[in-house]
Amino acid sequence: MRAIQLTGPSLDAFASVDLPEPPPPGHGQLHIAMRAASLNFIDVAVALGQYPGVSFPLIPVADGAGEVLAVGEGVSAFNVGDRVALHPKARWAAGRPTVERSRVMRGVNLPGVLMQVATVDASAVVKAPDHLSWEETASLPIVATTAWNALEAAHIGPGSHVVVLGTGGTSLMTLQLAKARGARVIVTSSSDDKLVRAQALGADHIVNYRTHPTWDDEVQRLTDGVGADLVLETVGPQTFMRSLGAVRQGGTVFTIGFLSGTVGQIDLLPLIIKSVRVQGNNTGSAEDLADALAAIAAHRIKPVLGRTFPVRRIEDAYRSAAEGGSFGKLAITLDEIAL
Ligand SMILES: NC(=O)c1ccc[n+]([C@@H]2O[C@H](COP(=O)([O-])OP(=O)(O)OC[C@H]3O[C@@H](n4cnc5c(N)ncnc54)[C@H](OP(=O)(O)O)[C@@H]3O)[C@@H](O)[C@H]2O)c1
Q1: What domain range is 238 assigned to?
Q2: How does pLDDT run across 40-60, given as a tens digit for each residue?
């Protein structure tokens, strides 16, 4: 079986390898013929040796999509030929986080998705919406699960105000799912071009955080001095205090990202005075992904793909992800190693 391995902590250490064919799927398992993958910031952190608990060589990449090739005993929900998304948190079918559910992740401490045939538990796989390509489906597991959980945590519905920071994959998926719920969405970006593209996706208000460094004041102005019900915090220490400035009394700062690092200083006073709920998040469960994909199917949402790379250009894909700045997700086609 063909697979791509990352042989060490480097963006240049990818190797195409031949591995033994997997045994037939066991009880409760599926074989998936992998078709596409997508990159997230965590894949870059793993490849740069910045993520804990990783040992090399490793089959990298958390997010993928493919076609059911064989069905093990005891599986009734899937048939050969079904198009599915693989959930990256392979031991988190449903329920609250536990150490084991949060810790185990494809491409981190389990084989990732850059292989011909993946053996997975049926409980960690979700049927793909019919209107999406392989690459679009593969772009979803991490960002759709996370975006869904952010909107659920803050009870976002018609008329709620949502702020997303930047135009990366998670922010744009949160924008799209929030619009489907009737919310009003404010998007920040360093680029006016990207902000125009965000408007085309439904953004109600746009703020350039370079030309408006006090973008939290803009959010207050745009919400008549109330503030946002939800701020999706993708950036970290650089933006956290402004997120507290932008959120409303009793609102939620959904804290997921560390693009500007993990360590910073917080003034607790605005958090206390405004009764802000700071909610951390570590992706979520397969059940959360299934809920998100049901909404994506019902609203015919098309996820935004920045660029798509063939798997032979895996180094270029990782370099592009490491540079950042993609409008939406980076996808990888697996045609060259697919069955
Ligand atoms: N914990 C979880 O459950 C979870 C799930 C998903 C993602 N994440 C994390 O969330 C973060 C974002 O992930 P992603 O995949 O969506 O990233 P991405 O696709 O790489 O997006 C990065 C974007 O963030 C924006 N950005 C960078 N610095 C900024 C700043 N100072 N202020 C405002 N925006 C800024 C930029 O947007 P512009 O180019 O428009 O300026 C940039 O393009 C990462 O740290 C990732 O690990 C966590």
Answers
A1: 144-280
A2: 999 999 999 999 999 999 999
